[in-house]
Amino acid sequence: MSTYRVLHHTTYAYSDEVSSSYGRAYLTPREFPGQRLLAHDIHIDPGPSDRSAGPDVYGNATTYFHVTQEHRRLVVTAESLVEVDQPPPPDADLPWEQARPTASTGPLAVEFTLDLTQPEITPDVKAYAAQSFTPGRPLLEAITELNSRIHHDFHYRTGSTTVSTSVADVFTAREGVCQDFARLAAACLRSHGLAARYVSGYLATEPPPGRERMIGADATHAWTAVWLPTPTTWLPFDPTNNQLPDDRYTTLAWGRDYQDVAPLRGIIYTEAATSTIDVSVDVAPVG
């Protein structure tokens, strides 16, 4: 069991006044077996004239806000205290074909088998996944190999993609970042009728031996989860790091894709020609 203090700090700066800013934040860690939210707060500067919070369709906690005070700078800071006690991986020795959900076996999981509005299941992706999902292979064995292959076949390179980069482009370039690899893994699963979640969160990192922790040097992270019918649950895996999540992983939200659970998104009214965004994340162990 591990406890973390997570500080997620986002600053938007604009070249001209913003008269109105609507925002939606997915910055509140989820609660579920294996994770407890002990304390949480989101601070917005300038202060919003309207603010509300509630669950989305997938049960994620979301915060809506509307800033009507003119501003050239918007700062959103989320601070959370989270206890993580990741349970051991569930038994997934069944043949992977038996993990395909149906309206009777997994009605809430069926949606996660579907391709997205901008299709991500290409013939190349399906053929790539087929190398791991051979007939009758145990699901955990297939997932473990797919996890390892993505980790070794694709190069992690910061700045090589954007949030709008397609899975097809990532597949061709053979490089990307964690959210790209999570989306690629999800497309691989869906190409064979399996249900895949995109999971947004944080990964606590340890400094090199003899070095102090660098405050704010952490980042948001993303991984994938596959649905299991018996017991009905989800098995998470991290292709970026070729491992199954453990107590170092803090979950923010999950959905079909990054667009469902982007940490911050919104609409602004302004004549500003340029803008910048600066994000810092610190995941500090407590105790």
Q: SS-based structural class?
A: mainly beta
CATH class of the largest domain: Alpha Beta
Whole-number radius of gyration? 20 Å
From N to C, what is the helix and strand string?
EEEEEHHEHEHEEEEEE
Overall strand count: 13
First-residue to last-residue Cα separation: 11 Å
> What is the CATH topology descriptor of the largest domain?
C8orf32 fold
Provide structural commentary.
- It comes from Nocardia coubleae.
- Residues 170-241 form the Transglutaminase-like domain.
- This is Transglutaminase family protein.
- Pfam families: Bact_transglu_N, Transglut_core.
- The structure is a single chain.
- By secondary structure, this protein is mainly beta.
- It folds into two domains: 2-85 and 263-286, Immunoglobulin-like (Sandwich); 96-245, C8orf32 fold (Roll).
- It contains four helices and 13 strands.
- Strands 1, 2, 3, 4, 5, 12 and 13 form a seven-stranded antiparallel β-sheet that branches. The chain has a four-stranded antiparallel β-sheet with strand order 10-9-8-11.
- Helix 1 (123-130) crosses helix 4.
- The N and C termini lie close together (11 Å).
- The model has no long low-confidence stretch (mean pLDDT 92).
